[in-house]
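User: I've been trying to design a sequence by hand for this structure and keep getting stuck. Would you show me what you'd pick, starting by listing the structure so we're on the same page?

Assistant: Good idea, let's start from the same input. This is the structure you sent:
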């Protein structure tokens, strides 16, 4: 079953987070250029993740969120993976969450995460899981995520699997 981008609305849909940050939801075709720039800066340059491990086939199938500052500059991103990513199609997966170092703690990460979590019930998901870099697990805990199991290494970085239940919008 293809992932439905149209539940997020046609094109990139702005979601107001606060006066300084706007989040657009869309397909890779719609917002991928901005998402790619943020992910490259954070994962490839800052965290030194090999470029061939950053890009995968799931980008074209995922719903992406891009946070933009008041000037329209992309400052954060994340993606909601499609149902076929996992055998448990009732659980969504958020991944590739990234915020530029210069604007961390601006609310951009929270805005991206909340936008993706709001979109998830429309895709049929009742819960969300993600692989959090261990040092930012407290950030996800503030958004209702709970750690599951032991930590592990992913691309050489300590991670922990976390889960949060979702409530369908009324």
């Amino acid at each position: 079953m293809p992932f439905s981008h149209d539940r997020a609305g046609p094109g990139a849909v702005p979601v107001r987070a606060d006066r300084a940050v706007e989040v657009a939801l869309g397909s890779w075709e719609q917002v991928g250029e901005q998402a790619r720039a943020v992910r490259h800066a954070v994962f490839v340059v800052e965290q030194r993740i090999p470029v061939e491990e950053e890009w995968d086939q799931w980008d074209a199938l995922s719903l992406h969120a891009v946070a933009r500052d008041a000037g329209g500059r992309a400052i954060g991103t994340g993606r909601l993976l499609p149902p076929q990513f996992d055998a448990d199609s009732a659980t969504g997966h958020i991944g590739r969450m990234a915020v530029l170092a210069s604007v961390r703690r601006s609310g951009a990460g929270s805005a991206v995460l909340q936008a993706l979590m709001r979109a998830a019930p429309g895709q049929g998901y009742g819960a969300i899981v993600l692989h959090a870099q261990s040092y930012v697990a407290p950030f996800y805990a503030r958004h209702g995520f709970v750690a599951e199991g032991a930590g592990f290494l992913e691309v050489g970085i300590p991670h922990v699997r976390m889960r949060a239940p979702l409530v369908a919008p009324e």
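That's my pick for every position. To get oriented when you compare it with your attempt: Helices lie at 28-46, 51-54, 108-119, 137-141. The first strand starts at residue 13 and ends at 16.
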